[in-house]
């Protein structure tokens, strides 16, 4: 054994997992800053060899068994059969026999806020950043911002190595029209829309999101101004239909097809008909019929991506299990969600009992038609969608929707990287790419539930301990 190498997670009958820790290394000497990433590092060395791993590369291809990955300077320097790729001299060797390596998740509808009261969201920049990373998320988009500068600041601090968390594509505050939402600015004309985009682009925001009361004119102005600044626009829409948004040049639509008002018979221009009419119309539409098929074709032809957020809708659907991760919440928030969950279970006639499985079929139809389907979670609603834990659950739900495990993993990794224009360096496991990885006990290609068994998350070649990240916020999520 190389001097200075100590066993990690030793288990009788299984080759031990090793890591190199210098005597004066980052793990032994805790930084005084409680937010410092070094507090949560479990694996760091100039050269690391992940040996005898099962590699699920994110492309949708079958797993490759008994692989060795060599990581140097934050990148995958070599990758291949263990019999052909020898660990370099002096490398810290991590024996991953029986374990899998998947790409770091690239999740596209995340938030740094969470439901803390009726119609109000608390800002959880620190705790949620840690939980996302603990769940295997190494890149994410904050698809909605009710704070202002915090998303940008957190993104910058993580990039500067001052905080633990994923790389963040920071979305500007919502582009919306007049509404009752206390944490949302109303944009009433095209000049305001363009000023809004310019201001937040100058502050460092890198994407835009439109919301339910936006007008077509304001949405068009925001999309065009955003494109001039290199920013893509997504939307959780209602007043504007999906078809109209596609014609306006929108890049992405959120929540699958569930917010679509395209099928509401008496839909008025620029007016949100409300949640109930939209849901009822969607519940009645034939997903194999001409109207839905035509909408799918239009979105695919115009290269409009779709983000699946099955996790948040599962919490509205009777008969579904409680979501994972509730024990990290502040006790009061957990109690609030428990009561909400019980109310859902007492309403077996809820329209979501029909809409939830139908949405799964619609998302599968969109992907099969050639659409870019991405994954997200949306920690809103009545609560229960907890950062990190919900990202793993979203992949499980994609499998339930009919995707194979390797397809679901690809949706949650490569597809998001493609949308962000970063697929040349993240989203899949290949030689030369950034070492953003999750080491998982078991084989999620065979049993997707193993996606929850994340033992180490590697970001830029540095390994983080999920249990340390979770323990640092347990019982306090909802406070900070």
CATH class of the largest domain: Alpha Beta
The CATH topology of the largest domain is given as: TIM Barrel
Detail the poorly predicted runs: 1-31
Secondary-structure class: alpha/beta
Give the second-level CATH assignment, the architecture of the largest domain.
Alpha-Beta Barrel
Proportion of helical residues: 25-40%
The DSSP helix count reads 14
- Radius of gyration, taken over Cα atoms and rounded to an integer in Å: 22 Å
Shape: globular
Roughly what fraction of the amino acids lie in strands? 15-25%
How many strands, which pairing sense, and closed or not: the largest β-sheet? 9 strands, mixed
Tally of distinct domains: 2
Give the mean pLDDT. 93
Let me know the number of strands: 21
Structural account:
30% of the residues lie in helices and 21% in strands. By secondary structure, the chain is an alpha/beta fold. It folds into two domains: 5-100 and 432-471, Urease, subunit C, domain 1 (Roll), CATH 2.30.40.10; 105-420, Metal-dependent hydrolases (TIM Barrel, Alpha-Beta Barrel), CATH 3.20.20.140. The strands form six sheets. Strands 3, 4, 5, 6, 7, 8, 19, 20 and 21 form a nine-stranded mixed sheet that branches. Helix 2 (150-159) links the parallel strand 12 (137-142) and strand 13. Helix 3 (190-203) runs parallel beside helix 4 (216-228) and helix 11 crosses helix 12 (405-411). The longest helix is centred in the last third of the chain and has 17 residues, at 352-368. It is globular. Mean pLDDT is 93; it is low at 1-31.
């Amino acid at each position: 054994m190389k001097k200075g190498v100590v066993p990690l997670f030793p288990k009788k009958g299984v080759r031990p997992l090793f890591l190199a820790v210098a005597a004066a290394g980052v793990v032994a000497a805790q930084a005084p800053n409680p937010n410092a990433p070094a507090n949560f590092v479990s694996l760091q060395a100039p050269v690391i060899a992940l040996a005898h791993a099962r590699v699920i590369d994110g492309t949708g291809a079958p797993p490759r068994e008994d692989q060795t990955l060599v990581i140097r300077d934050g990148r995958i320097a070599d990758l291949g059969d263990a019999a052909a790729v020898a660990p370099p001299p002096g490398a810290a060797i991590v024996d991953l026999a029986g374990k899998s390596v998947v790409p770091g998740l690239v999740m596209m509808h995340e938030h740094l806020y969470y439901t803390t009261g009726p119609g109000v969201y608390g800002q959880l920049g620190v705790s949620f950043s840690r939980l996302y990373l603990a769940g295997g998320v190494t890149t994410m988009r904050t698809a909605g911002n009710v704070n202002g500068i915090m998303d940008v600041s957190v993104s910058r601090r993580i990039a500067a190595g001052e905080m633990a968390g994923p790389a963040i594509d920071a979305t500007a505050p919502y582009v919306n029209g007049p509404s009752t939402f206390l944490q949302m600015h109303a944009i009433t004309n095209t000049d305001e829309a363009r000023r809004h985009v310019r201001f937040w682009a100058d502050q460092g925001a890198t994407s835009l999101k439109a919301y339910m009361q936006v007008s077509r004119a304001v949405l068009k102005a925001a999309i065009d101004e955003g494109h001039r600044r290199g920013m893509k626009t997504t939307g959780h829409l209602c007043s504007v239909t999906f078809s109209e948004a596609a014609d306006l040049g929108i890049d992405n639509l959120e929540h699958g097809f569930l917010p679509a008002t395209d099928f509401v018979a008496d839909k008025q221009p620029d007016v949100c008909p409300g949640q109930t009419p939209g849901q009822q119309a969607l519940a009645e539409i034939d997903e194999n019929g001409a109207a839905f098929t035509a909408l799918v074709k239009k979105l695919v032809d115009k290269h409009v991506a779709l983000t699946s957020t099955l996790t948040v809708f599962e919490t509205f659907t009777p008969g579904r299990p409680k979501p994972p991760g509730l024990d990290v919440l502040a006790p009061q928030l957990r109690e609030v969600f428990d009561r909400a969950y019980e109310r859902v279970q007492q309403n077996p006639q809820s329209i979501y009992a029909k809409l939830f499985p139908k949405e799964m079929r619609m998302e599968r139809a969109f992907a099969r038609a050639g659409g870019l389907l991405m994954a997200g979670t949306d920690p809103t609603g009545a609560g229960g969608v907890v950062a990190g834990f919900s990202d793993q659950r979203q992949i499980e739900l994609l499998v339930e929707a009919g995707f194979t495990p390797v397809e679901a993993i690809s949706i949650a990794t490569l597809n998001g990287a493609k949308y962000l224009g970063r697929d040349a360096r993240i989203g899949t496991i290949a030689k030369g790419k950034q070492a953003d990885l999750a080491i998982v006990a078991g084989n999620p290609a065979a049993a997707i539930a193993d996606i929850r068994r994340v033992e180490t998350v590697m970001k830029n070649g540095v390994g983080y301990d999920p249990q340390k990240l979770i323990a640092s916020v347990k019982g306090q999520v909802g406070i900070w």
